[in-house]
Amino acid sequence: MTMSESKKRAAASHLPTTAYTGISDRTQLNPIFARPGEDTDLPVDRIPDNESLPETAYQIVHDESMLDGNARLNLATFVGTWMDDHAARLYSESADKNMIDKDEYPQTAAIETRCWKMIAGLWNAPDPEKAIGTSTIGSSEACMLGGLALKRRWQQARRAEGKPTDKPNLVLSSAVQVCWEKFCNYWDVEARYVPISLDHKVLDGYELEKYVDENTIGVVAIMGVTYTGMYEPVAQISEALDRIQADTGLDIKIHVDGASGGMIAPFLQPELSWDFRVDRVVSISTSAHKYGLVYPGLGWVVWRTVEDLPADLVFDVTYLGGHMPTFALNFSRPGAQVLLQYYLFLRLGFDGYYRVQKASQDVALYLSGEIATMPAFELWNDGSDIPVFAWQLKKGHTENWNLYHLSERLRLKGWLIPAYPMPDDLSDLTVQRIVVRNGLSRNLAESLIGDIREAVEYLDQLEGPMPTEGQTASFTH
């Protein structure tokens, strides 16, 4: 056999012998890191000209995503980063379901209704059968829907009285989550921010009369302020609105943004009046993908009664041969997460949710307790509301480093712990925050405390100040 024939036979041995697979005949089945796309450059800002093997495309995407941070060590995010194997299997089995297509997927639609009725009961709705709710893409959409209902109710009442509707406003804390800023921007509502202070760390009803008037569509109360994790006292806010109504006649309702606390308070603080037990609360939203323990992409919003959701906001849609009522900003959206929520309700029950949330709170209290003993720090709160807490650098401790430097040192160990300025009147105060989620074990927490002590010891030994040029907050709500 000649050398040329030998080469031809060797090359032929690498060609596919089965039916055409959709891959160009010119593509050779070389070892994975020598395939086209692995040993050559692919464009990153346009679609490639040719196909590639699925293994090749997978490897490229897999390798690029490895450059992200470790989700389990991300203590900046509230969003869940872990579910069990049965949930993962259910997720893969139902990823193709479109939640809005209730005619094609009637059982998923029925499960959605079961879930929000369960949640309505959890939030002490007077009669869950007479409540109304829906799933959403996270709590941001849920907040938008709650805000829209407040605005429409206000508009209807004003028109009935022959009054103008061109200047609606919404009262909320300066520490509110950014989705409320978006709501006010997108739907032409004036945002009236009540500034937090060292004396009033959350919106608590103090001087509320200065912010509300006849154009106020409602007040937002947060069960777990994003900046610090503290609850806003819903009952206390309601009492302030009672006094305002007695003086002015204004009957102003409350939407509770329970993004995190909505799935914590019912289990860990069942005696706390924050939900539909407070008469002024007409709607509540939550993030199922936070302490609802579901993977990202699910929120819930529930109204006290059907009458609290204006009927003209609900559309009857003909879709794929069926009629269905819908109230949502997103039309096509995944149904898998709804099934995951139902799975968790069945899997954990009330006792299971209590145990999971209590374990997270115990870890938060351990971490805040250890940090409180460090001379460099002063706690803002301790994580006894939702399992989230923040701390600040103790005044006069050092001029050589700040919390941004500590955040950078911890990132070297894989920990993502943000440092950021507080809002408005406290913008000169920088804090650092830890979010404890299901999956952060006591063992990991002890390792984290060791890494914080080591980082502080290193920073305290500096003989001169660390550079501060280019420092930016690592906090994006």
Describe it for me?
The chain has 477 residues and is α/β, with parallel strands linked by helices. The chain has 3 domains: 3-65, no CATH class; 86-345, Aspartate Aminotransferase, domain 2; 353-460, Alpha-Beta Complex (Aspartate Aminotransferase, domain 1). The chain has 11 helices and 13 strands. It has helices at residues 3-12, 54-65, 85-94, 106-122, 138-160, 178-186, 234-248, 265-268, 336-372, 403-411, 442-460; strands at 132-136, 169-173, 190-194, 216-222, 254-257, 281-287, 299-303, 315-319, 322-326, 377-379, 388-393, 419-421, 430-435. It has a 7-stranded mixed β-sheet, with helices on both faces. The protein starts with a helix and ends in a 17-residue tail after the last helix.
The total beta strand count reads: 13
The CATH class of the largest domain: Alpha Beta
| Strand residue content | 5-15%
User: Globular, elongated, flat, extended or rod-shaped: what is the shape?
Assistant: globular
Oligomerization state of this entry? single chain
Which sheet architecture does the biggest sheet show? 7 strands, mixed
Output the number of helix runs. 11
What is the CATH architecture annotation of the largest domain? Answer: 3-Layer(aba) Sandwich
Strand order of the largest sheet: 1-7-6-5-4-2-3
CA-based gyration radius? 27 Å
The CATH superfamily of the largest domain is known as: Type I PLP-dependent aspartate aminotransferase-like (Major domain)
